[in-house]
Amino acid sequence: MDYDEDRIYYSYQNLQSDRGDAAEVVADNDDNNDDVNLPAVKRHFREFLRNYRQKQRYLYRERLLRMHQRTSGDGNTTNLSKKVIDNKAAIHVDLAHLGEYDITLLDLILRQPALVMPVFETAAVDALNTIIRKNRNDQQAEENDVPEQGLTQNAEGQEENDNSQSQNEDMFHGSSIQILLRGNMTPTPLRSIQSMHLNTLVRCTGIVISASKVRSRATKIHLRCSRCQHAHSVRATSGPFGAIPLPQRCMGAQPDDCGPTPYAVVPDDCHFVDHQTLKLQEAPEVVPTGEMPRSVLLAVERGVVDKAPPGTRVSILAIVSLFNSSGGRNGTSVKTVYLRVLGMQKDQGAGDHVTFTPREEEAFRMLARRSDVYEILSRSIAPSISGSYTYDIKKAITCQLFSGSRKRLPDGMRLRGDINVLLLGDPSMAKSQFLKYTTRVAPVGVYTSGKGSSAAGLTASVVKDQRGEFYLEGGAMVLADGGIVAIDEFDKMRPADRVAIHEAMEQQTISVAKAGITTVLNSRSSVLAAANPVFGRYDELKSASENIDLMTTILSRFDLIFLVRDVRDEELDKMICHHVMGVHINNSRGGLAAAGDTLGAGFDSSAPDGGLLDQQARAQISNANTSPEAIADNAMQVATTGNGELDVPTMKKYVQYCKAKCSPRLSEDSGDILASSYVKIRDDVRRNAMATSAQNGDDDGSDQAVIPITVRQLEALIRLSESLAKMRLEDEVQAQDIAEALRLFKVSTMAANAADSGNPVDGPSGTQNGMMRSALPSREELLRSEAFLRSRLVMHQMVNKQRIVEEAASQGYDATVVARAISIMTSRGELQEKNQGRMFKRVK
């Protein structure tokens, strides 16, 4: 019977074992390995690889042949290289296909993977031998015009494979084809792996934080007696971390004459495979509050080595196993859990290959077609934070979430599409809340504080393991690859640590050359930083360069820089108080929207148990809010009515959808508008610098802006324009996108440059700056008051502060300005206060 014939086959047809019934694979449901008929399992696996098909396509036959041609370069011979087979011969098998073909085989792999996977790999060798032999015989039959010869030879070859294992070992050097599993099993959290999962197949997700060097692990060692030259081979059966025991006595004809431990290893005749250890850590967004992220050791071999550098998000299928981490020979009852990887896929956490339901796509496209989608997205950013100064900040964070388009030039150079934003200003302005919320909305978000972060913690570190070897461990910017890194207290970082992230912010790579390790890691992430001025609060009477204690090299890498100031205005204070009171009152009544969270406060006074939600209830609520149906409903409602905000899961999914489906580019007309606008901005900055130098008496115009306007700012305008077009799923940047990008740039970076020049800036931020300047004295008034104090005060003479202020007021000076000047001169060390500030004297 030809298995290529167009008919349906089941796994137990024509696959009779010695027991002769369908129960040949497993005798019962116990986990006893003696109940598994391994020869029958091998035949079932072999026939699955040969006979499984989708319509008229034999899927795994084609994969085996392509693998064979890729590794040996010949599709009709089985004389494969030893090294090629050991490390490159691998095919992917989908668990869904295996369950569709035979549910018993799938159950065996799920319950006893360590037992049946070696049999599966050996069956793949048999299937490949049969397929190649049949193809060769078919070719010979066509050449000799003997159609029946191929079928006869195929049957003989199949019987030969069933009865001769040694021939396969000689032909394939005792190795097998690696089977890499794929499947959509329910993920098991790393912190939930317990003893009941031992020796079972699990699926886990996380971030690879470290990777060791690739080593060679012996799978079969060749021994030779040093006295009688007797040869013996021993196979490894104890897993990746186990040792191979050597025979204590010779196994030759006269073992007594050879003495104890006579065997020596012959390295040239041993078989090795590539072996690597990885460390998998939980994703930051799934770590419970107040808990440390859990990590587990991974063991990868052959075709999976060097596939996941630090910072890669992966989804693995692995066997839960144990090993003795102490390394001692004495037996101990406490072992360390590790995962033996049988399949690995890169988990596209940044939204590159996220799946969307048809209803989600319909809702997202309806939302993108709205003309006010930009306003809807910006007001959905941290809805619990209000204030006139937050409008532009929310729009900037929205642009940062969507980012621009990454580009790869013909010469190999890469241009980043990620947008970096800096929030600089007074305390209690919700800067940290913006950072926290952004890391929740971003597909990949990592939050860190500058005071508690070092250069190695942000970039990468080299760690020494127990063997004395060095390996890489990725930092925050590597773990956030494809997302956003939020750095709070950016000004508290040591200057040397800030310099370490220069390369990561612009080139989006991290170069490491330590302890003999020279490599380059990807860090394709945006930076959202928050910092305070030099004196804690922004001093309007000082220049921007005196308030911003950051080097121009780091400032130029930020696309947008916002100066966030606490304006003392009665109307603004009333509005903020009303909003804050509403947030607290609504939250105390169980409102969820005021807190901007999907879980709310977690308290309900009407509950019989006092209102505490247990962990299971919280998980159910979270799963309900993150389900595709809930996301589609929220997006459809906002797209239809235009009212309300997008919740966190919907916002995150929409960002992923836009980044996956759209990559806008500039048109010729848009490029001309941007180029002319950039030239005008540069010219305005030059004119302001010359005017400032003339006021200060410098004729050479040496005064430069605190934030230099360079080509990086031109690229920042391009990225902002592309992100605005991406929100609407448009492939080309429009004129309105360029206008909004220029407006954002003017009210942020340009406003920070013009903070001490008195030039007005349009927009809410410019209005805030004008109110602040009108409420505080000008620089000229302050200089006049300081000149009066220097002429009035005698060195080291103690005077009364109130009397000096009244004397200045009698001569036409503003008393408030004089008091302000006294405070500034005291902070500079020119004056020294006594008696709780009532008396002071001049010391400089």
TrEMBL record:
Enzyme class: hydrolase
UniProt keyword annotations, A-Z: ATP-binding, Cell cycle, DNA replication, DNA-binding, Helicase, Hydrolase, Nucleotide-binding, Nucleus
InterPro entries assigned to the protein according to its UniProt record, in alphabetical order: MCM, MCM5, MCM5_C, MCM_CS, MCM_dom, MCM_lid, MCM_N, MCM_OB
Cellular component aspect of the GO annotation: MCM complex; nucleus
Domain MCM C-terminal AAA(+) ATPase: 373-580
SMART domains documented for this protein: MCM (SM00350)
Reaction equations catalysed: ATP + H2O = ADP + phosphate + H(+)
BP GO terms, sorted: DNA replication initiation; double-strand break repair via break-induced replication
Domain of life: Eukaryota
Subcellular location: Nucleus
GO MF annotation terms: 3'-5' DNA helicase activity; ATP binding; DNA replication origin binding; hydrolase activity; single-stranded DNA binding; single-stranded DNA helicase activity
One Pfam family recorded for the sequence: MCM_lid
Coiled coil: none
EC number from the UniProt entry: 3.6.4.12
Described function: Acts as component of the MCM2-7 complex (MCM complex) which is the replicative helicase essential for 'once per cell cycle' DNA replication initiation and elongation in eukaryotic cells. The active ATPase sites in the MCM2-7 ring are formed through the interaction surfaces of two neighboring subunits such that a critical structure of a conserved arginine finger motif is provided in trans relative to the ATP-binding site of the Walker A box of the adjacent subunit. The six ATPase active sites, however, are likely to contribute differentially to the complex helicase activity.
Family: Belongs to the MCM family.
PANTHER family in UniProt: DNA REPLICATION LICENSING FACTOR MCM FAMILY MEMBER, DNA REPLICATION LICENSING FACTOR MCM5
Assembly and interaction partners: Component of the MCM2-7 complex.
Name of the protein described by the UniProt record: DNA replication licensing factor MCM5
Species per Swiss-Prot/TrEMBL record: Chaetoceros tenuissimus
